[in-house]
């Protein structure tokens, strides 16, 4: 099994297509297909903040559901958009407002289609992926070794939001424990969620959210090669979004 795990896209459709091109994929019937049969895997947060969240929904839906040529796990932004589409009261901020503005600008027929596609993509997705052949777990914000194989509320919160303490930083960001430092498993944990300037390797974990939407780059982690491939972002660089590691 050869896979290309793609970090948080956040509405950056052009960069996602550029990354597929750099990875050696070719467009076939509107979706990227690799001549070696490699499988792309999206680790969540495909929407919000970037310039074309609706385009990303359409593209990822077609790859994963329409043509069955890839896999997807949800992130916290995906969860919030799903709750918005359910009709729940959610606060349209922290990036969601960009996606909902794009959505409301569509004709009603296209709105129904986009809503249906995203909800189907989300509902059919596993909370996290166990890739036995690749000896890896793909989980949006990571996962503790003891949680692997489990579901439930605690696991769901961890996978979507990380190891949060319940406290907040002065700027409103949640305080998170650095769970990767304690990871002792033999399987790769491939995750994103927290922007870093360079892929962050700790034990057998790697954070590949290299902050494309904040002007840095979009990154893929290839297995079994354990290789990093990135493309530069077209977005303005936002220094304060990158924590020190």
Question: How does this structure look, described?
Answer:
This protein has helices at 13-22, 53-66, 76-86, 96-104, 108-123, 152-161, and strands spanning 3-6, 26-28, 31-33, 39-42, 71-72, 129-131, 136-138, 164-168, 174-176, 188-191, 200-202, 205-207, 217-223, 227-232. The protein has a five-stranded mixed β-sheet, covered by helices on one side. It has 245 residues and is an alpha/beta fold. Helix content is 29%, strand content 22%. The protein has a single domain (3-241), classed as Purple Acid Phosphatase, chain A, domain 2. It is built from six helices and 14 strands. It comes from Thalassobacillus cyri. This is Protein phosphatase/bis(5'-nucleosyl)-tetraphosphatase (Symmetrical). InterPro entries: Ap4A_hydrolase, Calcineurin-like_PHP, Metallo-depent_PP-like, MPP_PrpE-like, Ser/Thr-sp_prot-phosphatase. GO terms for molecular function: phosphatase activity. One of its GO terms (cellular component) is cytoplasm.
């Amino acid at each position: 099994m050869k896979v290309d795990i793609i970090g948080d896209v956040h509405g950056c459709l052009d960069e996602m297509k550029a990354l597929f091109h750099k990875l050696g994929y070719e467009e076939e019937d509107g979706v990227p297909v690799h001549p070696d049969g490699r499988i792309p895997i999206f680790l969540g947060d495909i929407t919000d903040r970037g310039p074309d969240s609706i385009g990303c929904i359409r593209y990822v839906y077609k790859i994963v559901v329409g043509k069955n040529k890839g896999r997807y796990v949800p992130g916290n932004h995906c969860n919030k958009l799903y709750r918005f589409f359910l009709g729940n009261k959610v606060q349209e901020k922290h990036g969601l407002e960009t996606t909902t503005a794009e959505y409301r600008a569509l004709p009603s027929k296209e709105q129904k289609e986009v809503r249906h596609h995203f909800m189907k993509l989300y509902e059919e997705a596993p909370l996290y992926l166990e890739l036995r052949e690749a000896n890896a777990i793909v989980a949006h914000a990571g996962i503790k070794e003891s949680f692997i194989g489990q579901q439930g509320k605690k696991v769901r919160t961890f996978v979507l939001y990380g190891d949060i303490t319940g406290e907040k930083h002065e700027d409103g960001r949640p305080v998170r424990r650095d769970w990767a430092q304690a990871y002792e498993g033999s399987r790769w944990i491939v995750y994103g969620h927290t922007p870093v300037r360079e892929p962050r390797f700790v034990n057998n974990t790697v954070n590949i959210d290299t902050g494309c939407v904040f002007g840095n780059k979009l990154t893929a982690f290839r297995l079994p090669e354990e290789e990093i491939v990135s493309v530069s972002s077209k977005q303005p660089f936002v220094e304060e979004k990158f924590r020190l590691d």
